[in-house]
Write a structure and sequence with these properties.
This protein is of the alpha+beta class. It is built from 11 helices and 19 strands.
Length: 354
C-alpha cells in the first residue's frame, strides 16, 4: 500500500488523475503479480489489474491490494476506457518508453481522457528498496558469493570459458536461484579486454586473467558481481592494472554516501584511474542500480546529476581494458545507508592466483 500512496502523491505534479502501467517489471513491482501479461490502472480511489482468463486466479492471489478485472471478450482498451468513464478521469498517464505507437493509437481511439506521456515514474519509486526487496537481493548476493568460492575450486587450464559459465550457473541454481541474472561473462586472456565478453569456447591457459561477471536471479531480484582472477602468474602490467582498479574501487567504496550525485560518485573511481594514466581505458559508467532489473536507476556516470539516496542498492564497477593484453574489472553490490554504505558482496578482492 505504501507504493500506491507514494505514486498517488505524485499525481498532481505529473498532471494526471490516473496512470496506466504496462511495463512488466513495473507491474510486478506494484502488484506482486508475476504473470507475463496484464495492465495496471491506478487512480486516486482505485487500483485495478486487468488480465485475461489465464491469469485470473494467480492475479487474485498475488495482487493483494488490487481489484482484478478479467478481460472476457473486451479488449484492454475498452476495459480501461470503461473504467476511465465510470470514474470521470480526464488525464491518464502512460509509460511512453513501453507503449508502442500502435497501442497508443488504440488507447486514444477508445478513451475520452487525454493520454499523458510519463517517463521513469515507477522506476523512480523502485530506486529505494523496501525491506522485503532487500532481503531478496541479499539472498541473491549470497548465492553469487557462494558460487565464487565454488568456482575457484573448478577453474584450471584446459577447460573452456563456457565450462566455467555452465558450472557457475548450475551451482547458483542448486543454491536456490531460478537462473543466472544475465548472460554470464567469462572473459579470459586477451578476451578480458572486452568489457562484455560473454563466455565462448576459448580454452583457459596458464597466465590468463579471467573476468567473471555474473549474478543470481532469486525471487525476481538480481545480484551482479565481478571478480578478475589469474590462472598462473600474470604479466606485470596486468598485475599493475589490477592494483589500480582495486584501489579505485576502494576509493569509491570509502567515499560514496547519500546526498552526492551520480557524477560525484563516479568521479571517486574515475579520477583515481585517470591520475594513474588509464582514464581512456575506463570507458563505461562506474555503476548502476540493481534489483528487479539488472540495470536500473540510477546510472552513475560523468553526466549523472541524480542524487544517491539511502535505501538504494547500487553496483560499483571500475575497470581498465587494454586491447591485445587483457582487462580487469571488480564489481561490488552496495546498499546506501543513512551514514555511509554497506558492502553486500563479501567475496575477496585481493588478486587470487590459481
Ligand atoms: Zn556485472
Ligand atoms: Zn553491473
Amino acid at each position: 500500500m505504501e507504493k500506491l500512496a507514494k505514486l498517488r502523491a505524485q499525481f498532481d505534479q505529473l498532471g494526471v488523475d490516473g496512470v496506466i502501467i504496462t511495463n512488466g517489471v513495473n507491474r510486478r513491482y506494484l502488484t506482486g503479480f508475476t504473470g507475463s501479461a496484464g495492465t495496471v490502472v491506478i487512480t486516486k480511489s482505485e487500483a485495478c489489474l486487468f488480465v485475461d482468463f489465464r491469469y485470473v486466479d494467480q492475479a487474485q492471489s498475488q495482487a493483494e491490494n488490487y481489484t482484478v478485472i478479467e478481460l472476457e471478450r473486451q479488449s484492454v482498451f475498452t476495459g480501461v476506457a470503461k473504467m476511465a468513464e465510470r470514474l470521470g478521469l480526464s488525464r491518464l498517464g502512460f509509460e511512453q518508453e513501453n507503449v508502442t505507437y500502435r497501442v497508443h493509437t488504440q488507447y486514444q481511439e477508445a478513451i475520452q481522457a487525454e493520454m499523458v506521456p510519463l517517463s521513469g515514474v515507477i522506476e523512480g519509486l523502485r530506486t529505494i528498496k523496501t525491506a522485503e526487496e532487500l532481503q531478496k537481493i541479499r539472498t541473491a548476493v549470497e548465492i553469487s558469493d557462494a558460487a565464487f568460492t565454488h568456482i575457484l575450486t573448478y577453474i584450471r587450464p584446459g577447460i573452456t570459458e563456457i565450462d566455467v559459465a555452465n558450472e557457475l550457473e548450475f551451482y547458483m541454481r542448486k543454491q536456490g536461484a531460478a537462473s543466472s541474472a544475465f548472460d554470464t561473462i567469462v572473459a579470459s586472456g586477451h578476451r578480458s579486454a572486452l568489457p562484455h565478453g560473454v563466455a565462448t569456447t576459448k580454452v583457459i591457459e596458464t597466465g590468463d586473467m579471467i573476468t567473471l561477471d555474473y549474478g543470481a536471479y532469486y525471487q525476481g531480484y538480481r545480484s551482479d558481481m565481478t571478480r578478475t582472477i589469474a590462472v598462473g602468474e600474470p604479466q606485470d602490467e596486468l598485475k599493475r592494472i589490477y592494483t589500480i582498479v582495486l584501489d579505485s574501487l576502494e576509493n569509491a567504496l570509502a567515499g560514496i554516501k547519500a546526498g552526492m550525485t551520480g557524477r560525484e560518485a563516479d568521479a571517486l573511481s574515475r579520477d583515481y584511474i585517470t591520475e594513474k594514466g588509464y582514464g581512456k581505458q575506463y570507458g563505461h559508467g562506474s555503476g548502476h542500480g540493481v534489483g528487479l532489473d539488472l540495470h536500473e536507476e540510477i546510472f552513475m556516470s560523468t553526466t549523472c546529476e541524480k542524487r544517491i539516496e539511502s535505501g538504494m542498492v547500487l553496483t560499483v564497477e571500475p575497470g581498465i581494458y587494454i586491447p591485445n593484453l587483457g582487462g580487469v574489472r571488480i564489481e561490488d553490490d552496495i546498499l546506501v545507508t543513512a551514514d555511509g554504505i554497506e558492502i553486500l558482496t563479501k567475496s575477496p578482492k585481493e588478486l587470487i592466483i590459481l
